[in-house]
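Hi F.,

I've been meaning to write this up properly since the lab meeting, where we talked about keeping a consistent format for the predictions we share between groups. The idea is simple: the sequence comes first, exactly as it goes in, then the C-alpha cells exactly as they come out, then a line or two of notes. No screenshots and no reformatting. I'm using this chain as the first example so we have something concrete to point to.
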Amino acid sequence: MIHVIAIITAKPGLRDEIIARIIDNIPAVKAEDGCIEYRPIIDLSPDAESSFGRDTVVIVENWEDEVCLKKHAASPHMKRYAENVKVFIQKRDVRIMKDA
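Output, unedited:
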C-alpha cells in the first residue's frame, strides 16, 4: 500500500475554498482503481507552535500501489482540481510513503 500525506496551506482565510474543491473531487477520486482512502482533515491542536494552523488542510490518501497513484496524479479530474485550487494555495508539501 502507498500512503500519501498532502499538506496544503491556503493563502490567509482561503482554506474553505480549497476544502470545497477537494470535497467536490472526492467521488471521482474514490471511483479510481486502487483508491483505498482519500479524505481531507484539519488540525484541531490548540498549541500554535505544534499546529498546522487555520489555513492548512491535510489530505490523507491510501493507494493500492504506485501504478494506481501515478494514474491518479495524471487523471483529468486531478488536473482540473489543480487548476481550480492554484489561486488559493500558498504552499503545498506532498509526502509519498510505504509501510516499513
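Notes:
The chain has one domain: 2-98.
The mean pLDDT is 95.

If this format works for you, I'll send the rest the same way.

G.
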